[in-house]
Design a protein that fits this description.
Blueprint lengths: L2 E2 L1 E4 L1 H5 L9 H11 L6 E6 L12 H7 L7 E5 L3 H9 L4 E7 L2 H8 L3 H18 L3 E6 L3 E2 L3 E2 L2 H13 L4 E6 L6 H12 L7 E5 L6 H10 L4 E4 L19 H10 L2 E2 L4 H16 L3
Parallel strand pairs: 1-12, 2-11, 3-4, 4-5, 5-6, 6-9, 9-10, 10-11
Antiparallel strand pairs: 7-8
Helix pairs in contact: 2-3, 2-11, 7-8, 8-9, 10-11
The protein binds 3-hydroxy-3-methylglutaryl-coenzyme A (HMG) and magnesium ion.
């Protein structure tokens, strides 16, 4: 029996944000335009964060202005605060995302504030998005392991996920930011989160540092999740998560899902081309 699973493409944002060489906006635009022909419903294009913190995303408005928008695709952007939200709205992002951490150590490293301060900062973003009719997504990072605080208690993930849901996030993406999760720890985490938020409002966002992301996706499928974030070419890493490797590669997730009998609606030939383009952007780095 076939079943639809959506892959939310992260390559232009999570995939590229950690690259040291400043990639020209034209190359990012070309990648997004190619991705727009593959069958994705949602593509995370960029983030409106401090350019001092993440210089690679300083061209967020230029990239969103330069892409050719295909009908039916939601072009998304990360927004850590109201300043970022207002810039994303001006750049006509179709949806925005706020991003919290399940550990205090990663919250400080990534957002320069505690978890509760970050939630306070997100509240006006959520309010503005609701008033403007812009869909709001939420992330929880370090859902199994934190590079600063060690193993993450599942109850802590559930608490933050519920807070984001209460703020109006239509979907909460659960980030194994450093790719140390195993089917066992992912299962324990999901069990706790599912007691608060239904599977239909959850997504898995797994980095592949230890090569276990596909197993973790299978575990999540078994618990009812049907949306996964991935980046073409396995690009990625978070600048504030030491040792974090790439996102799980979209083409690998699509192939595994096909083997398991799930539909993704993605064109495998064009996906291969996009993976090649994504890898070439990285290879051009010194
Ligand atoms: P801060 O230094 O505490 O902020 O950083 P601030 O409010 O004091 O502002 C400092 C400066 O930044 C000021 O400029 C602000 O105007 C400017 P100055 O007066 O010094 O010239 N500023 C901004 N500029 C542009 N856009 C903005 C913005 N906000 C302030 N939105 C802040 C706090 C949140 C801004 C900072 O920590 C930040 O930008 N963090 C983002 C870090 C980031 O992007 N991390 C990667 C994304 S998260 C991720 O990858 C995980 C995920 O993939 C899931 C997973 O894998 O787990 C989503
Ligand atoms: Mg990530």
């Amino acid at each position: 029996m076939s079943d639809f699973v959506e892959i939310f493409e992260m390559g232009p944002r999570d995939g590229l944000q950690n690259e040291k060489r400043l990639i020209p906006a034209a190359d990012k635009i070309a990648l997004v335009n190619l991705l727009s022909s593959i069958g994705f419903r949602r593509i995370e294009v960029t983030s409106f964060v401090s350019p001092k913190w993440v210089p690679q995303m300083a061209d967020a408005a230029e990239v969103l202005a330069g892409i050719s928008r295909a009908p039916g695709i939601s072009y998304a952007a990360l927004t850590p605060n109201l300043k970022g939200y207002e810039a994303a709205r001006a750049a006509r992002a179709d949806e925005v995302a706020i991003f919290a951490s399940a550990s205090e150590g990663f919250s400080q490293a990534n957002l320069n504030c505690s978890i509760s301060q970050s939630l306070e900062r997100f509240a006006p973003v959520a309010e503005a998005a609701r008033a403007d009719g812009i869909p709001l997504r939420g992330y929880v990072s370090v859902v199994t392991d934190c590079p600063f605080d060690g193993p993450t208690p599942p109850a802590q993930v559930a608490r933050v996920a519920a807070a984001l849901r209460d703020m109006g996030c239509y979907e909460i993406s659960l980030g194994d930011t450093i790719g140390h999760g195993t089917p066992h720890t992912i299962r324990a985490m999901l069990k706790a989160v599912l007691a608060e938020v239904p599977a239909a409002q959850l997504a898995g966002h797994y980095h592949d540092t230890r090569g276990r992301a596909l197993e973790n996706i299978e575990q999540s499928l078994a618990l009812g999740l049907r949306v996964f974030d991935a980046a073409v070419g396995g690009l990625g890493g978070c600048p504030y998560a030491p040792g974090a490797a790439g996102n799980v590669a979209t083409e690998a997730v699509a192939a595994r899902l096909a083997d398991l009998g799930f539909e993704t609606g993605l064109n495998p030939v064009l996906l291969g081309k996009a993976a090649e383009m994504a890898r070439s952007l990285r290879l051009e780095n010194p």
